[in-house]
Amino acid sequence: MDNKKLAELLFPDVVNTPEYYEEKYPYRKLPSKAQVTRMAPSPTGFIHLGNLYSALADERIAHKKGGVFYLRIEDTDAKRKVEGAVETIINVLKYFDIEFDEGAGCEDGENNYGPYFQRQRVEIYHTYVKNLVERGLAYPCFCEEDELAKVREQQDADKVLTGYYGKYATCRNLSYEEIEANIKAGKPYVVRLRSQGSPDKEITFKDSIKGEIKLPENIHDIVILKRDGVPTYHFAHAIDDHLMRTTLVIRGGEWLASVPIHYELFNLLGFKMPEYGHTAHLMKFDEETGGKRKLSKRKDPELSLDYYRKDGYHPYCMKVYLLTLLNSNFEEWHEKFPDKDINEFPFSVDKMSQSGALFDKDKLHNICKNELSKLSEQEIYDFLYDWANEHEPEKCKVWFADKEKMLGILRLYMGIGMKRRRKDFIYAKQIFEMIGYFFDLEGEAAQKDNFRLDDATVNDILDEYLATYNHEDDNSQWFDKLKAVADKLGFASDMKAFKAEPEKFKGNVSDIAEVVRIAVTGLANTPDLWSIVHIMGEEQMRDRINAAKK
Ligand code: GLU
Predict the structure, then answer these.
(1) Smallest Cα–Cα separation from 469: which of 454, 484, 453?
(2) Do domains 124-279 and 455-548 have the same CATH topology?
(3) Nearest-10 crossing angle of helices 455-468, 475-488
(4) What is residue 550's predicted lDDT score, i.e. its pLDDT?
(5) Ligand 1 centroid, distance to 318 Cα (angstroms)
């Protein structure tokens, strides 16, 4: 067969050659050791924690040594495309402090290696497919779905590997005349790779994360161009990673099984394969079984990134958490240099987990508590305001009506100005639940903990408290008055006396304080009550106490 003639028949409009593109997209001039990495999502709009995990690794690796991190949109599958997905991807990653230097949606990026949407690169792909056809390494296949199904049935019956390969690849052997006749008759076709692989050979591939891996060679004549002339993911990504001069790709472990295909494609195209590192699956402890399992889209809402945005996890805490998962030595480094910018951490692919990284919400929450406790009240204020404004716009107006009040609450809850910072804050939604009693919002202000004393005693305590209350009292005067209420109602004001003869008393001054605390805040545990009352003001305090009476 005259392959040149066949290539001309299939791609009469392709005028460029691979050399043209090799020149158009030259090797990048970067500092030595700088890596070019990328994120290459399909525009389905769904991006999850696993994607963020890989993207952060790619971003850190690129930016550690002055490399490039770019965004390419793999939109070859039109069915999966969702409107606005690209903006979502960019915005979500930006929210988590991951920014691209180049690529789709990057107006101010360098963008010399574009276009970055695969559908806009069809001419490039055709050039390379044409070249493969010229070299006898690709051919048109006219098989219809039902014919392929028949072959599969036969293969099942013969108990051999299913797929289009070897003697089952009937279109491999079509003559030029047959192909020409089919095309003249308007028969649709795909273009397949003429695999050179052998079933009893293996490839040895060095995964940057998992180390050396042996996998069977690809033997399938995989489709590289679909009937509509758009390439498949496998083919397009090989061309793109090459022409965009990618040097390292960290991507989800689900792609590891495709490596033999990619290996063969890179080889036959004459490209040097970038380094690939396949991340381990994110795992979690299953509450029901107690065993480890993969995080699943269906069962685990925490896999979705929306989950963290909706509940208001601070993006910085998420980044610290992901770095903890990504690099085993990050936590120690961060503890040792708490004031260093986390971007200075010497991120390394070698330290990435080879087996499944364990997603642990308690750990995440601990990190949130720690990291949030390091922020100033203004930083927390701004973060909470932005979250509330986006997710709870109506309540936001009430929460932030009085800036000084909100700052006072934050100062108190974070222990700012105290000997040691408090670590009560985890995420925005939880924070507003915790401080909700300061605001007259239905439901939020409701009493959450119950009084432990009987109604009559509760009422007596609250009446006595209000009767002698003076808003000018300082903390110790105020506490003395609580003691006086205790004495008056048969509770011990002196803890020593109470411990010596508890049976003599109905309780002690801490029971009095608890009743007042629950009446004022609805909660049995809060920071300093005197301070709460002074942020809230006398009027609100009295209203709440009167409403709490039985
Ligand atoms: N487009 C693929 C995806 O949607 C990316 C695979 C890769 O990174 O090579 O996950």
Answers:
(1) 484
(2) no
(3) 140
(4) 83
(5) 23
pLDDT digits (tens, 9 = 90+) for 362-399: 999 999 999 999 999 999 999 999 999 999 999 999 99
CA of 189 to the centre of ligand 1 (A): 25
Q: For ligand 1, pick from 250, 251, 261 the residue to mutate: most ligand atoms within 8 Å of CB.
A: 251
What is the C-alpha to C-alpha distance for residues 51 and 412, in angstroms, rounded to an integer? Answer: 37
Q: How confident is the model at residue 430 (pLDDT cuts 50, 70, 90)?
A: very high
Of 452, 479, 447, 400, whose CA–CA distance to 544 is shortest?
Answer: 447
Contacts by 391-399 with C-beta closer than 8 Å and gap 24+? Answer: 391/310, 391/312, 391/428, 392/432, 395/432, 395/439, 395/441, 395/444, 398/439, 398/440, 398/441, 399/432, 399/439
Taking CB atoms within 8 Å and a gap of at least 24, the contacts of 337-342 are 338/374
Distance CA 137, CA 139 (A): 7
Tens digits of residue pLDDT in 125-152: 999 999 999 999 999 999 999 999 999 9
List CB contacts of 135: < 8 A, sequence separation 6 or more: 3
Separation of CA 199 and ligand 1 centre (Å):
26
For residue 77, the model assigns a pLDDT of 86
CA distances, 389 to each of 312, 383, 404, 410, 428 (Å) = 11, 10, 18, 17, 12
Please count the CA atoms within 13 angstroms of the CA of 351 that sit on its side-chain side: 18
Which secondary-structure segment (H or E) carries 357? strand 357-358
Rounded CA gap, 51 and 24, in Å? 31
Ligand 1, closest atom to CA 249? 8
**Spacing, Cα 473 to ligand 1 middle (Å):** 65
Instruction: Tell me which fold the domain 455-548 belongs to.
Output: Arc Repressor Mutant, subunit A (1.10.10)
Of the CA atoms within 13 Å of residue 391, those in its CB half-sphere come to 17
- Are 115 and 121 in contact by the 8 Å Cβ rule? The answer is yes
Residues whose beta carbon lies within 6 Å of some atom of ligand 1: 40-42, 74, 233, 237, 251, 255
- Whole-number Å distance between alpha carbons of 73 and 240: 11
What CATH number is given for 124-279 in this structure?
3.40.50.620
pLDDT at 111 over 90: no
Domain range list for the chain: 124-279, 373-439, 455-548
3-state secondary structure of 98: coil
> Which pLDDT score is estimated for 80?
77
CA of 99 to the centre of ligand 1 (A): 18
Q: Give residue 488's Cα distance to chain centre.
A: 58
Locate 542 and state its tokens.
């009295």
